[in-house]
C-alpha cells in the first residue's frame, strides 16, 4: 500500500475523504492543524475519526493564525454568522488556510515518500471559499511539482479532491457506503467542547440540509431548539 497524506479536520467532508483514500488502496497518514480555530472540538473529532477509519498515523500541527485574525474562526471579535447562507465570501473564510495546510501536507508527503495528498474541498457546497475551487487545487499541484525535491527527481505529486463536484447529500451517501460514522465528526463553527453543535451557523445548515436531502438520519447533537 502506498502512503498518502490526508488532511483531516474532524468534519464530515474530511472523514469521507479519509474513507475514500483507504478504499482506493492507500495507507492513509492523517494531518490535522490546530490553527487557533474557535471550533477546537473538531480536533478531538479528528482523533476519533482517524482511529475509527484505520489511519496509519495521525499528527496535529500547531500554528497560531490568531496572530493575524481576519476571520470569525480565528478572531473572537468577529461573530460567526447565524442568519443563513449569503452570497459572497463569508467572514468564516480563513485567509490562506488551505494554502498553509496543503503546504504542510506536502512537506510530510515528501518525508513519507508519498506522491499523494487527499483534501476534502468541495466546490458545490463550499460556502464561497476561494481556496476550495478547482482552479486553486490545479495551481497548487503545479506549484508542488516545481517546488519539491521529490518532483524534481521525477516523483510527480498529486492532489486528490474526491468530493470537489459532489453535493453534501452525495458526500454523505458515499461515506455511509464506506462505513463512516458521522456521529464522530464535528462540523459546527462554534461547537462546544463536547461537540454539541449550534445548529444555525453556515456549516451546521449545510450539514443538516445534506442529511435531509440524502434521506439519512442526522446523528449530530444540536442545541435544543436549534
Task: Give me a quick take on this structure.
The chain has helices at 12-23, 41-52, 97-112, 134-147, 149-152, 168-177, 202-214, and strands at residues 3-7, 27-34, 57-62, 116-118, 158-160.
Topology:
Blueprint: E1 3-7, H1 12-23, E2 27-34, H2 41-52, E3 57-62, H3 97-112, E4 116-118, H4 134-147, H5 149-152, E5 158-160, H6 168-177, H7 202-214
Parallel strand pairs: 1-2, 1-4, 2-3, 4-5
Helix pairs in contact: 1-6, 6-7
Task: Describe the structure in your own words.
This protein has 226 residues and is of the alpha/beta class. Helices cover 36% and strands 11% of the residues. It has 7 helices and 5 strands; from the N terminus they run E-H-E-H-E-H-E-H-H-E-H-H. The protein has a 5-stranded parallel beta sheet, with helices on both faces. The chain starts with a strand and ends in a 12-residue tail after the last helix. The model has no long low-confidence stretch (mean pLDDT 94).
- DSSP strand content: 5-15%
Average per-residue pLDDT, rounded, comes to 94
Strand order in the largest sheet: 3-2-1-4-5
Compute the separation of the termini in Å.
Answer: 44 Å
Major sheet? 5 strands, parallel
Estimated radius of gyration: 17 Å
Structural class: alpha/beta
Q: Which consecutive residue ranges, at least 5 long each, have pLDDT under 50?
A: none
Helix content: 25-40%
Overall shape: it is globular
Number of helices: 7
Order of helices and strands: EHEHEHEHHEHH
How would you classify the quaternary structure? single chain
